[in-house]
């Protein structure tokens, strides 16, 4: 039973790693689209940076770092693999990781309405709906971490060195999500409606 739990933990850790890899690819796709939209065709009168939340560039950097940390950890998974410390550091008050998500959620509604009004005429609809889907992934990412970490915790025995770390992370993410639940909701509704 003990070995089954460990095996299950490792699988969930691998799933988390895989989802982080996909997420980083999605983030870089947004930057690619951003680069194409900053081409000469888009009217200069609109400050193009305001189509995209300012926090994006920082988030990409943070998630590339997180991906490397997870790869190092998960691909050489020891007998008692630990994930909690990585997320503990990430959600720490000294780290601005969650603040940048708040900034993102605050900027997003304005960006969406700008994209809707201005880019509507300049770019194919397809790019716009791609963008909305990618924006949606970012809104969903923190709640996804909560689900992943809760799953790891489910298969972590109380004596395990990761147990307490995970417990704190899950608690922090829960508090964060409920604190900003209106912001999450408003952005999800907006994006679903636009799609």
From TrEMBL:
Origin: domain of life: Eukaryota
Xref: InterPro entries: ARHGEF33, DBL_dom_sf, DH_dom
Show where the DH domain sits: 8-183
GO MF entry, a single one: guanyl-nucleotide exchange factor activity
- PANTHER family in the cross-refs: RHO GUANINE NUCLEOTIDE EXCHANGE FACTOR 33
Q: What is this protein called?
A: Rho guanine nucleotide exchange factor 33
Q: What is the lineage of its organism?
A: Eukaryota, Metazoa, Chordata, Craniata, Vertebrata
